Predict the 3D structure of the following.
Amino acid sequence: MLLPFTLEPDVLLGGISRENDPTPIFDAVWYNAGAVNDGLAYSFAVGTLAGARYLTADLLLDGDDAGVFVLEMQEGESGPVFQFFFSLLPEASARMRIPLDSVHQNRWLYDREAAWLKPRVGGQRVDLRRVDRMRLLVTRRGDTVTRWCMTPLIVTAAEPLRLAQPILRKGCLLDALGQSTLRTWPGKSRDAQEVTTRLHNQLRDAPLQQWPDGFTKWGGWTYRTFDATGYFHTHWDAEGERWWLVDPEGYAFWSAGQDCVRPAIDASAAGLESALTWLPDDTDAEFATIVTHDGDALLVDYLQAHLMRAFGPNAWHAAWSNITLAELRRTGFNTVGNWSDWPVASDAGFPYVRPLVPLADPKAPLIFRDFPDVFDPAFEADAARFAEQLAETRDDPALVGYFLMNEPTWGFAEQTPAAGMLFNMTTNASRRALVDFLRERYGDPASLSRAWELDTTFEAVAKSAWDAPLNEAAQTDLADFSAIMVERYFSTLSAACRAVDPNHLNLGARYYSVPPDWCLGGMRSFDVFSMNCYEARVPADSLKAIHEALKLPTLIGEWHLGAMDVGLPATGVGPRVRDQVARGQAYRVYLETAAAIPWCVGVHHFTHYDQSALGRFDGECYNIGFLDICHRPYDELVLAARQSHRRLYPVALGEHKPFGDAPEYMSRLFF
């Protein structure tokens, strides 16, 4: 079939209905979906998509909730299924531009483009030469019918143009304060003067805010002591049969942290400039720094504008620092978490963790997503250069520890790193090491071919452009070799970091969930295992298994809860609850049940502030903060956190039972 060509849906799936009402987009059709997995089905001849480079369509989502969609491509009725997820910002037209080479699975996250949010891949690898069907499904939604209009799909060899100007049916999406214009809610700030008064009052009260009674100067517990080393370290309490962190003076420490403690809430506005009520121009020179350009990105920080308006261009950061550390003490947090303005914590002697920044110019190539060629001779030198950044905090007693990375994207793939490497890279050092591994396991090519049920050679494994399917034996072999790759990866990084900084805790990789067995064993080189856990409770059985496998405690690097009652179009990755009161209940359940788990040494809430209603760099626009964009604390959540943090250590010691009055958990809306 000659390119470009269009595809129309030939079947409506589930309870979806089609409208004949006029649409704001030319040649579009309205659809109404009342349930998850309602959608549109497309069928075509096998191989129709071969040779094409993009799928594109224009869409507009009605209402004030975000919507999440998945486009699935499948090889026949029972073949592998590739998934491409995306979300839409409500009341702004968007252009979907799906690169068809994404089916190779070598990239997880694609760039947000205006109202087309968080495009990313999932599912399995497919071959476009074998694909003969697609489905566009609603995969997450709010409480009302998901109504959107869209044009036919266009299949093209040329890259589609970006959408030049979105259609905004209800006008601007953000008001002059950075709040949503699509909703009203109790507590929505009226004007800039209200925000300024609030900030001045918070600065006035800052010296009065203290940690709960019984906390040490580091946020530890005065009633339980161990050996002091001058730095944070771990301790297995054989008598109490639980793990602890220990503060520099030897007191038991359980880390209640807040991530992203920094004066920034970026609204990603590229392509959505017309959706802003206020954007500084030449007449607002004092606010020029709230607008930043990064390549194609345009970021606008309304929080910083509020701070500058209240305290002036030279004093706002110091004022924010005083307010924020006081707010953390008032609420009972004892750790400044990842992606924070950690020098502020360091200067104040407030416990903090820090993320290590990936090298901008690694010499060892990437072989699958962000997994490096760990057998390349350059990798060890890369690791040494990577570790050098720890020198500046090596002697700081306030530093709890450092994270090597966050949620490596190779961990999200259904393929193991070795399988992904086989399909996406030709010759490299790790493929040659894979051949050595297979040669030792099988001895000769004939034995390998019999096991993998295909005609292959060691030379083909070493350097061919691989496209053959992998049977169960091949998948097992590649998982076993992936375990070797992961162990080499993390042990090399860990050794390099300890050579620069022997004083602080290696807090691991913040895996996105409990890792599979082939991955977990390679994490023994950490001091603390870390993962992100967006569930209603931390899974005690999983933490026990990690403790037994690695002999390490676990730190939860991210978690949160969200609601739809304060103007944000989505709620977050964690459980959704009814309102801010329920967020407080859910906070107490999560933190206190985690503190009662003997293998858990802390949980870090993500994030300090809500995200922008326009969405951050990738489109996330969640109610996940303790404060909104106008620096208004969610009092119900703050009160609940204060209650839990006062009970934290008695709960961890088994003297009190954890809070158990859980709220109703609702269907999540995140992307």
Observations:
- The mean pLDDT is 98.
- The chain is about 25% helix and 20% strand.
